[in-house]
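Module 6 notes. Inverse folding takes a fixed backbone as the condition and produces residue identities as the prediction. Think of it as a translation problem where the source language is geometry and the target language is the twenty amino acids. Below is one complete input and output pair. Work through it position by position during the lab.
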């Protein structure tokens, strides 16, 4: 369990001025301060929270599937909230059939085949469904029925791996997750989709498709998106996002640990290298590891490893907590 300490706030004149500028967005100062990503209470796609009780996980839709990086297993398939998906050796893929019924489902809740989509690194054509004996539809990947494990109480856990010698974390292509195998994702990049150009642990690489045009972009600028309107982008053309579980006052990032494998903190910029954005809204703050992160209107900014090329907005709405940002720092929720 991560340890968190409350920040002490010196009520100096400068701090009061910053407080006036910060936290004025949705709900006022600190309105979005919440449990860190990766701890119990992570949001599912429908806006509810996972909690630690297994019964609360049963009927949650998978939402946009994502890819987690396990040190032991390599890339593993996860739901929108970061919970690992599993497959059962006693099931079959051709034809798709589930052998987990009755009490088995209390420990291994079936993943519903509703509101499911793929992200980069996951072939949408592999997604399917199987009708269970009770008439409900269960998600399948490459024909294999998908489950969650009741004892995974926090995102990115893999406590179900190897249980009974028959349960295995699923790889992004539906196979059994295993380090060094071909899972539809470059094993060297982990949660960073293959072709993203950022490499394992990199924070400065350009998305695939980035060329000279993207390299000449300002450090921070606005771009017109056909669906979202004006959105922020960095020098690599990557869309920038905000996390609703962060807080603006005190300025704090609640994306830590595994969360940072998917969401990379935006680097500070020189205000002279900014276009179409009010530089008075831009600040930087020091993260717990000592690194510096760019913020707008005191809200931390990130880019998403699931965006493969400049202009992608695959991170929009992920988990009901991640959203693109307008040039004035507001969330874009359309």
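Target side of the pair, the amino acids:
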């Amino acid at each position: 369990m991560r340890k968190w300490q409350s920040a002490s706030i010196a009520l100096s004149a400068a701090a009061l001025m910053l407080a006036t500028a910060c936290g004025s967005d949705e709900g006022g100062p600190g309105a979005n301060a919440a449990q860190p990503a990766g701890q119990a209470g992570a949001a599912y796609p429908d806006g509810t929270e996972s909690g630690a009780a297994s019964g609360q996980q049963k009927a949650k839709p998978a939402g946009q599937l994502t890819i987690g990086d396990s040190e032991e297993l390599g890339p593993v398939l996860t739901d929108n909230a970061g919970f690992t998906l599993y497959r059962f050796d006693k099931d079959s893929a051709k034809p798709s059939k589930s052998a987990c019924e009755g009490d088995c489902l209390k420990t291994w809740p079936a993943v519903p085949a509703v509101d499911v989509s793929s992200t980069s690194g996951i072939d949408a054509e592999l997604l399917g469904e199987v009708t269970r004996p009770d008439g409900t539809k269960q998600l399948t990947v490459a024909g294999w029925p998908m489950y969650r494990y009741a004892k995974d109480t926090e995102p990115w856990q893999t406590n179900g791996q190897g249980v009974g010698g028959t349960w295995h974390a699923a790889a992004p292509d539906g196979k059994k997750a295993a380090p060094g195998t071909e899972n539809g994702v470059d094993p060297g990049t982990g949660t960073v989709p293959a072709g993203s150009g950022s490499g394992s642990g990199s924070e400065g690489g350009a998305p695939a498709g980035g060329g000279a045009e993207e390299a000449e972009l300002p450090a921070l600028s606005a771009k017109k998106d056909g669906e979202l309107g004006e959105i922020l982008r960095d020098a690599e053309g990557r869309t920038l996002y905000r996390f609703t579980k962060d807080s603006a006052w005190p300025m704090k990032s609640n994306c830590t640990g595994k969360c940072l494998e998917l969401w990379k903190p935006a680097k500070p910029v020189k205000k002279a290298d900014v276009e179409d954005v009010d530089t008075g809204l831009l600040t930087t703050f020091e993260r717990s590891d000592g690194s510096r992160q760019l913020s707008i209107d005191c809200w931390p900014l990130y880019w998403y490893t699931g965006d493969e090329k400049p202009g992608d907005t695959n991170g929009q709405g992920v988990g009901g907590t991640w959203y693109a940002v307008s040039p004035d720092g507001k969330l874009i929720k359309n």
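Reference fact for the lab report: Residues 49 and 134 are 26 Å apart (CA to CA).
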